[in-house]
């Protein structure tokens, strides 16, 4: 089989990862069952702590150095910042 076709399955076949103990519908139950059978302690997830968002804070420079150039509308392409040049075809 050519190397370029290794990831292609024939029509009607589904990848095995969608089924079994790691299938999406059974994953929550089976992972905890496997941990209990192996004696692995089940760790409780840590609660998420949301930080205050500052749009001017730059993560690279670690200070407020970001400047807004243009605010985009919710829908559609952005309006031209620079004058457009008419092209003739």
Structure description:
The protein has 89 residues and is mostly loops. It has a domain at 3-38. It has one helix and two strands; from the N terminus they run αββ. A two-stranded antiparallel ribbon has the order 1-2. The chain is flat. The two termini are 47 Å apart. The mean pLDDT is 76.
Describe the protein's topology.
Elements: H1 27-38, E1 57-58, E2 63-64
Antiparallel strand pairs: 1-2
Poorly predicted runs: none
Shape, principal axes of CA atoms? flat
Give the radius of gyration: 26 Å
Query: For the residues shown, what is the average pLDDT?
Result: 76
Report the total helices.
Answer: 1
List SSEs in N-to-C order. Answer: HEE
Instruction: Classify the beta-strand content into a percent band.
Output: under 5%
Strand order of the largest sheet: 1-2
Highlighted features:
1 helix
Summarize this structure briefly.
This protein has about 90 residues and is largely without helices or strands. It has one helix and two strands.
